[in-house]
Amino acid sequence: xxxxxxxxxxxxxxxxxxHQVPESVNPPIxxxxxxxxxxxxxxxxxxxxxxNEETLKNHIPCTDCGRRWVDFENGDGRNPVNFSPxxxxxITINAxxxxxxxxxxxxxxxxxxxSMIEDLDCTLFQATLGFSVYTLGFAFAPLxxxxxxxxxxxxxxxxxxxxxxxxSEVMIALAPNVxxxxxxxxIGGCFGSTGxxxxxxxxxxxxxxxxxxxxxxxxxxxxxxxxxxxxMIAGWIEANPSLQWRWIHWIQAIVxxxxxxxxxxxxxxxxxxxxxxxIACRVRKDTGDGRYRAKSEVNKPCLMSMIATSCARPLRLxxxxxxxxxxxxxxxxxxxVLFFLLDxxxxxxxxxxxxxxxxxxxxxxxxxxxxxxGYLVNVYQERLYKKYVHRKGQEARLYMAxxxxxxxxxxxxxxxxxxxxxxxxIVPLIGLTLFMTSAFVxxxxxxxxxADCYGPYASSAxxxxxxxxxxxxxxxxxxxxxxxxxxxxxxxxxxxxLIAAIMIPIPYILFFYGSRIRGCSPASQKxxxxxxxxxxxxxxx
Length: 541
Hints:
Elements lengths: L12 E6 L20 E6 L8 H6 L9 E4 L13 H24 L4 H8 L3 H29 L2 H19 L4 H29 L6 H27 L4 H23 L5 H16 L4 E2 L9 H18 L1 H32 L3 H7 L1 H28 L6 H20 L7 H29 L3 H18 L4 H23 L2 H15 L2 H19 L1
Parallel strand pairs: 3-4
Antiparallel strand pairs: 1-2, 1-3
């Protein structure tokens, strides 16, 4: 068999050799090496000549020679950060589209409650339970599945998650009883979360740190704007007597099916460690030299150990790190209120202003509008960050979060106190838009700030806040009806606004004292050690 020069496995690689000793026979595929202490780097063109074929086949790896590290060359097209801009944006847009569909499915479910309760002869609490268990999947599934993505890559999980999500929507549309709906919603939440939670990691895979602001904003926009667009469209589907709740889910199944096919055609693996491991495996197979390794293959823990770590570390950070704790509670509360509103706004506008189902669905356009405004605010925040990062460090991310901490309860109070028959309906919608703009700013700041602060532990920190946020989101809708019946819409909103006001100091404390808080953190000290070791390694290269 002749290896062709265009074969991807035989392009130029960077090989790092450990503990080299003089060899009596030069390795047939290596250019001469210069020794630097006990390690050396060399740019190694893997030869393709037929005259080397037999030597490669018969070469016996020599353990005395140490390992040869397989890494990307500068500008290597297989490195995800070197993908073309068109490829990067195709991957980003497809991944964000799936996230948007999953978010829309979460919120649009409530618009079909009336016809579903009548069709399946179930209670309002049972229907609401189907709404809540969806977010429960978002809380726990990623803790386990994130380890599998480290082992097998992101691409297989996108494909499996998207197609299983389609099947869960079909299952809901065909459900003969509410129990089947609840089970299907739980399945949809698990698979939807697995796919959606990978998007932030995919963006980090293919975009350099200074390029991630816009793609991350697009991701956040997809999450929150779709939470408003979903029920807005579903409201008009529910208003049509020949469609109603089942067609809400049929349409979601069709749209998500189209997205799944698009992902299958457009996406490719973006996790560099998995790509390098595959290249190293192919090189070992083609050369017969077992010394070729990707660094991710060495001292690699078993899958069960990885799962245990991915479950334990987010919990440890959540319970021991003040920054993770405070931001998790803050975004968790804001998200809980959002889902409280998703479950109560329809009834409020129906009872106070006499809106129909389609009209109450249109009310949720304020969520999309607030998301767009929040996105524009974050564009300004990005400018502030670039201007002040050298002075404030990570805390330069928090300027607009400080403003949002005040406008969040303000928007909630406007909505709560102006939703009255003698006040035009547009006024409470202004309050709802202000609330959503603030929630969007907080959502994106939480992701970027925690990623900046926790570096190599960013995934665990974000998983911890996601766990807290989605557990709170699961609980809030379960007492929506009871709270509104007991306190009325006005006072329920007032209670939440007062709690939000109590949380105003959170971003201010971190803005002024965040660096000191991190200085007392064992996790932050460990991160500094990892970064120092990485910098030393880069200098050695």
